[in-house]
Amino acid sequence: QSEDGKESAPRRMKIAPGVVEELIPGQGFEGFDPTHPNTAFDPFLKTMLRGVARGFGMSYLTLTGDVGEANYSSMRAGLLPERDHWRVLQNVVSSRVHRWIYRDFVDMGLLTRALRLPSSVSEDYYAAEWRGRRWQWVDPSNDLEAFEREVALGLNSRQRGASDRGNDYETIIDETADDLDYAEKAKVDVTGLGKKAPAPTPGPPPQEPGKGNGNRKGPKAGRLTSSQFALFGG
Questions:
Q1: 8-state DSSP, 16
Q2: Is 91 helix (H, G, I), strand (E, B) or coil?
Q3: Measured between alpha carbons, how far is 60 from 42 in angstroms, rounded to an integer?
Q4: 110: which DSSP letter?
Q5: Which of 2-11, 45-54, 140-149 has the lowest average pLDDT?
Q6: What is the C-alpha to C-alpha distance for residues 230 and 223, in angstroms, rounded to an integer?
Q7: What is the band of 191 on the pLDDT scale with cuts at 50, 70, 90?
C-alpha cells in the first residue's frame, strides 16, 4: 500500500540463484522452490518423442534407444511398419537416383572404352539389381523356422530369403562350395557330424561361345550375375 492509502500493483523483479534484490521496509522474503515439471517431465518427454518418431516414420525405440518399456511383441510391432517405410524410401532412391546414375555410368564407360563387357550379353548391361540395407530380427531363430516352413510349402524361395537379409544367393552358394572344397582338401570336418566333409557338387559345364557367360542355364542363360554388377551399385 502506498503512502496515500491506495493499493499499489505487485512489484515484479528478476531473480537469479543466490541473488536477491534489496527489500524495501515492510517487505519480507519467502523462499521460491519450483518443482514443476519434475514429477511429470518423463511422461511429457516420452509423449513428445513418440510424436517426433511417428513423424519420421520410425519407432520410438529406434529414435531414442529406450528399451525400458519394450518387449518382444512391442518391438516387433513397432519395427515392422518402420522397416516397410525404409524399404519404400530405398526403392525410391534406387529407381530415381541409382538406376539413372548406373545407366549413365555404363554408357560413358562403353563409349570411352574404360569398361569392357562381353557383347554376347549386351542386352543385359542394364539388368542390375540394387539391394538396400536389411535388418536382423530380435529373435532370428523363430524367423528362420518360419522361413524354412515357407520354403517347404513353396511360399518363399531361398533367393528371396537371402535378398531380404541383404545377401546375394549366388555368392552364398559359391562361398559354400569354396568352403567345402577347401575343407575337403584339408581333410577337416566342417559338417559338425563327425563325418568327412562332402565333396562340392560340380558346377554346370561351360557353354559354347555366344550363348552367355556360362553361369546360368535355362531362361536366364546369358545374363551377368548380380555380383558382376555389384561394382556399379545397381
A1: B
A2: helix
A3: 14
A4: H
A5: 2-11
A6: 14
A7: confident
Handedness of CA 45, 50, 53, 54 (dihedral sign): negative
Is 60 exceeded by the pLDDT of residue 16?
Answer: yes
Q: What is the spatial distance between Cα 168 and Cα 224, in angstroms, rounded to a whole number? A: 13
Mean pLDDT, residues 157-163: 87
pTM exceeds 0.85 for this model: no
Tell me the C-alpha distance between 10 and 118, whole Å. Answer: 90
Query: 223-231 — which CB contacts under 8 Å span 24+ positions?
Result: 223/121, 223/124, 223/127, 224/117, 224/121, 224/124, 224/127, 225/170, 226/128, 226/129, 226/168, 226/170, 227/168, 227/170, 227/171, 229/127, 229/128, 229/129, 230/168
Model confidence over 55-80: pLDDT tens digits? 888 888 888 888 777 777 777 778 88
